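lol so apparently i was supposed to do this last week
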Amino acid sequence: MDIILEIKVLGAAKEVGRSAFLVSSENSNILLDYGILLKREPEFPIHVKPKDIHAIVISHAHLDHSGNVPSLFLSSSRSQVIATAPTMDLSYLLINDMLKISGFYLPFENIEVENMVKNHTDLDFRTKHAINDLNITLFESGHVVGGSSIIVECKGKKIFYTGDINTRGSKLLRPADLDFEEIDMMIIESTYSQTNQKQREQSEKELLEFAYDIVENDGTLFIPAFSVERSQEIACVFKAANFPYKVVMDGMALKVNEIISKYPEFLRDSELFKNAIENVEWIRDWKRRKQVIKQPCVIISPAGMLVGGSAIFYMQNLMNSDKNGIALVSYQGENTPGRLLLEKKTFKMNGKIKKCFAQVKQFEFSGHNSREELFEILDRVKGNPTVLAVHGDNDVCVKFSEEISEKYGYESFAPNAGDTYKL
Ligand SMILES: [Zn+2]
Ligand SMILES: [Zn+2]
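anyway here it is w/ zinc ion bound
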């Protein structure tokens, strides 16, 4: 039988990071994501020749999916960049911020980021877009604002790439959309396939209890949170519960507020979002920053793993008193300051490791599906797809892939980078 599509795994193979998949047909080559692996020195997916690539589809703005796209615009590449409008705006913001912090290690500069934007085409959900003989459709993925899963079709063959996915939704986002016809291949994220997470309502309740506890005892609660989605989600949690005390927001989260405000149609409840960000005070200068740390209130600010930004200032000023609290609401990567705080109750200040006296708690607010929910996706999709389990740690992808072939009888793989599959 003729081969209609070839899929080459370029990244996110047995790891979380540098997601990148090359899909080729008879006369087209497209990339699904082209991300980076965020480490002190970032790592990249397998190289492709930019002139061979007709289009790059970005599933969502997180840098492990979008971060290396500008490297394809070093020469006078004419590749199209396809993403939803908020994904493009948020990718632009995050990539430029990454350039400021770790530009030294990156193979591109601002000019390439500008070229990426110049070549982009907005695509709405559920709207078919043709690239030669390939058709692309984006489906809401429920993971971050503008985030999508991607379907690629060619001559009756269909690939479904989940991207990062959340089928339960959140205060901010609708659940992922899985309403489509039979598929022949599924590339599925595996991040939490071996872990069950707490119900979201339970996490919200526990976070609110902690906040009441700290603020009513005259303390300040600091919530380091990713600037995209998590900060806004947390603001919505406080608003929806009519939390009666002061909540402030700082850092790049404020720019994200402005971007998200442009796209109410991408939100589950745009009224709640509007009220939530109007309800919080936006901290814009050092004078206010220095005042709020002396008040009983809640402070939401990036970075989620305490790597940089105004988070450092807040830690330095709040960690010395047990009246204060730190609520970690994001995943804490290995060797990050956030992980050290959680495990050792220490924080590095001016090059010295110091003990943290503030109360530290972690709450689960993941934007990813948990194990049960990933299996629900497999229950719901139609067809007899070959499955590639990606975007999970080594063992996690391998186990998930084995479970899928046992339970569903599908051909299933935990691919290595460079592996190719044919349809
Ligand atoms: Zn993501
Ligand atoms: Zn990801």
